[in-house]
Write a structure and sequence with these properties.
Number of strands: 15
Distance between the termini: 43 Å
Structural class: mainly beta
Number of domains: 2
CATH class of the largest domain: Mainly Beta
Shape: rod-shaped
Strand content: over 45%
CATH architecture of the largest domain: Beta Barrel
Number of helices: 3
Low-confidence stretches: 100-150
Helix content: 10-25%
Oligomer: single chain
Largest sheet: 8 strands, antiparallel, barrel
CATH topology of the largest domain: Porin
Length: 317
Amino acid sequence: MAAPVVIEVVASPPPQPRLSEALVSSCSDATGGDGCVLDSGEATGPEARARVVVSFTGDYAHAWVRTRSATRHIAFRDGDPLDERFRAAGLVAAALASGAASPRPAAVADAGAIAPPASAADAAGEGRDATDAAPVPDVPARPPAAPTDEDGSRVWAGGVVGLGGLQPRAGAAVGAGLGIARSPVFVALSVTYEQTLHEDAQGLGEQLQRLGAGAGIRLALAGPVSLLAPVQLEIEHARLSVRQPATGRTDAGSRARVGLAAAGQIACALDDRLEAFVGVRAAVLDEETTVRVQGLTRAVLPAWEASWVLGLNMRLP
């Protein structure tokens, strides 16, 4: 049985394991024999029928497949799924490893794609002197990283613990991050509800409803981990209620406040569409709020807030 084709995948950040597996699987299906395996990086790795280096740009828009004698360039369309890009690279790797001319995968753009350079072996097959073949460009060992929100728009939901008021609050939040083209910038929207779990010693309770809109940026950190940093203009409706312990009488008042909030979230991909994230938010409001009951000052709400959020992001189809 023929030895396997050994493939080294070069990308920054490294691709998710399922993507590398898709590349190896498509290469194995096309080569037969012992198929294809990923390079383990060990000096005592398996004996190889051929060694292939597959390099991707940071946004996976381009790939270069290289053997000792040939290099092929693949330019993908914006709408090509990541899995299909890796499968296409696997087919090209199989073709180069077998010495055949690489097929043009369906995922490769017909317009605007860079033509693959001719190799010395191609030139010899056409009866030309190998020295007349077009030079094979050097493929960078580590393509430049270009973090992008390549997976498009997302919706999210999570639980919230809020600080900066009468006492800690608990609540929930939902929102969306709407991708802008293929840039790392997104439109940020959110709706939040928080309330104190019980009244304080003076019988005061607090409820907050908040709407936010702004923009954010998403940056790839390492592997499946990303940083999200939205900044939003927020409109907040604060409702405070009071129950007088001596009489049992209740009353309530409310007011609207405007603020600017910034957040930082660390997200980790769980699968193709789902991410878990944890984040912190800090906001500066237009002014503090004084709470008076029967003309007496009972509390002062500061002109700042902070909250922790734990939740899930889901990529839209």
